[in-house]
């Protein structure tokens, strides 16, 4: 799906940026991040980032996703570790102002896409997501061959 979005962006004259060997479509300072969260129909609130997800994925959400809801207290820069600050450092390839737009879907080879949603997803510490904004998109029927 990521490759398809990148190719479509090229065809539309939009940007495609390489982040650590993976191409992302960037349209009007919004990087599209596709993610298949299940291979069978599941509600969006069951989406979870795998435990073995790369540090790049974590950083994409932390640096380019929506800011977390207000916490109990702000972390003083003097208390933050270099590793913690690195998770929130924007990717130069995308630009500091680029926002992450998530395209989450469930799909399998036999039935195609079951459900697809887009919006802004904040990655929680338990690898689940909260959605400040989301919308379900219609799924086109799979044509019979």
Structure description:
The protein has 145 residues and is α+β, with helices and mostly antiparallel strands. The chain has 3 helices and 6 strands. A 6-stranded mixed β-sheet has the order 1-2-3-4-5-6, with helices on one face. The mean pLDDT is 86.
Defining key terms:
145 residues; globular; alpha+beta
Nutshell version of this structure?
The protein has three helices and six strands, in the order αβββααβββ. It is α+β, with helices and mostly antiparallel strands.
Mean pLDDT: 86
Level of helix content? 10-25%
Largest sheet, in brief, is: 6 strands, mixed
Strand proportion, as a percent range, falls in: 35-45%
**Main sheet strand line-up:** 1-2-3-4-5-6
Tell me the Rg in angstroms.
16 Å
Order of H and E elements: HEEEHHEEE
Number of strands: 6
Structure class: alpha+beta
**Mass-distribution shape:** globular
Number of helices: 3
**How far apart are the first and last residues' alpha carbons, in Å?**
22 Å
Contiguous low-pLDDT stretches (5 residues minimum) are none
Topology, please?
Blueprint: H1 2-11, E1 15-19, E2 22-27, E3 30-38, H2 55-64, H3 82-87, E4 99-108, E5 112-123, E6 129-137
């Amino acid at each position: 799906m990521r490759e398809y979005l990148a190719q479509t962006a090229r065809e539309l004259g939009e940007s495609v940026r390489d982040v650590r060997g993976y191409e992302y479509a960037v349209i009007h300072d919004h990087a599209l991040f596709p993610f298949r969260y299940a291979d069978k129909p599941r509600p969006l609130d069951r989406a979870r980032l795998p435990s073995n997800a790369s540090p790049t994925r974590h950083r994409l959400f932390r640096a380019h996703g929506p800011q977390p809801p207000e916490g109990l207290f702000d972390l003083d820069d003097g208390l933050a570790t270099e590793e913690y600050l690195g998770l929130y450092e924007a990717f130069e390839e995308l630009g500091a102002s680029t926002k992450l737009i998530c395209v989450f879907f469930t799909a399998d080879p036999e039935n195609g896409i079951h459900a697809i949603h887009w919006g802004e997803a904040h990655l929680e510490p338990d690898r689940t997501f909260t959605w400040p904004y989301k919308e379900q998109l219609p799924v086109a029927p799979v044509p019979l061959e």
